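User: quick one, fold this
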Amino acid sequence: MNMNLYGHDGQWLMVDCGVSFNEPLTPDEIRTADVVCADPRFISEQKERLSGIVITHAHEDHVGALPFLWRRFKCPVYTTAFTAEVLRRKLVQVGLADEVPVVVVKENQSVQIGVFTVSWLSLTHSIPEPFAMTIDTPAGKIFHTGDWKIDKKPILGEGFSPEAFKALAKQNILAMMCDSTNAMQPGHSISETTCYKALLEVIKPEKGRVVVGCFSSNVARLVALGRVAQETGRYFALIGRSLTNMVGAAKATGYWPDDLPLVDAAHLGYLPREEVLAVVTGSQGEPRATLNRLASGSCYDLTLDPDDLVIFSAMMIPGNEDAIMRLVEQFKGQKVRTLQQQDTELPIHVSGHPCQDELKQLYSWVQPHVAIPVHGEAKHLDANAKVARNSFVPRQLVGENGDLFQLAPSLRVRRKQVETGRIALSR
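Assistant:
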C-alpha cells in the first residue's frame, strides 16, 4: 500500500497512493479489513503544502486508495494515459468523475510540480506504462524506480532499454529509491514471453475446461492467455468486474490487440468443455471473488466438472496461504484438478520485480550516491542494501515507515518522525 512523500522548501510531493486487501490494521490484530491503506493524516493535516500526487503505474497497491482519499488532499494528480484511464474509472465509482484534475504526461516529459521538477522514464513491469521518475530540486536530484524488472521480451510494449538509465550517471543522482520485492532472489527475473510459452505448453493438451486465476491488472498475462486460447482453439472469456474494467482501459488506450476477441462469459455454459478458456479473479482466495464462487458451485456463468483444470497464474502473497489452500481443497473435493507454481517446473507465473542481477545492473548504470531500498519487508530492504553496497554505491540508508530520510544538506535517517498506521476503506 505505497504512499511516499518527498519534501523540499516547505512543500511535499506524494508518489503513489495504494491499497492492500484483507489485512489487519495493527500487527497484533486478528481481524482483517477488506481494503486497507496507509493512514494519510500527516499530509492531510497540511494539505496546503501538498503540491501534487504522482502515480507511477496502475497496480492497486499504487493507485487504489486515491479515489477514497483525494478529498483529503484536493490537489492535481499526474500520471500517464493508461493509468489515468484506470483511475478515471475508479473515480466514477466514488462520484468524483469531474472533480479530480488528472494531468496526463508522457515518457521523457518533465513537469514542474511546485518546487519539484519531475521527469518520467519508461521501464518494464507486469502492467502497461510502468514509469520510473527523477525528482529534481535545488537540493539535489533523486531517482524513484517504482516497480520494475528488466524484461527484454515483454508481451506488451517495448523491451527494457538501458540507455535512459545509463544517462542518469551523468546527472549526479543524489539518491535512488529502489524496489526491493525480489532482492533476496539471485539471478534474473523471467520474461512474460517465457511465461506465455509455459502456459501454452500446459493448456495445449487439455481436454476439458481450463480456468486461470491471475491478477486483473496484469494485462500482459491476459493478452498472453488470449493468444493461448487462439492457438488451442478455445473461446476466451473474462469473469470478474476488475478484469473487464482493466481490459476496458487497455482497449481505450490501445493496449488490447484488435485481433484478440473476447466472448461473453454468459455464453461459456453453452460451449463444449474443450473449447473454454476463462480467466477469473480470486487467485489469492478472496471470499467474494470468482474462484471462490466456482469452488463452491455458485458461479452464475460457469460450472466446472471433474477433470477440468484450474491454474493459479499468480504469486501466493504471504498471509494468503490458508485461503488459497482452502480453495484448492474445495476443488479437489469436486475432482477438479489444480496447478500452482510449486506443482510444476514450468514458469506458469513470473514476477514483475527485479532479482539481484537486475538490481546490480541498474545500480551500475545510475551510479547514485545513496541507495534507499523501498517496497518490501525489512529482510528485503536489507538484501537490497547489500546488493547496492556490492555494486559500489557509497551509502545505503535503510528505514521503516515513519522514518524521515534527510538527504541534504547532511545525510541521516531521523527515526519515527511521522506517526504512521493503517485505516480501513469501504468499497
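User: anything notable?
Assistant: The mean pLDDT is 95.
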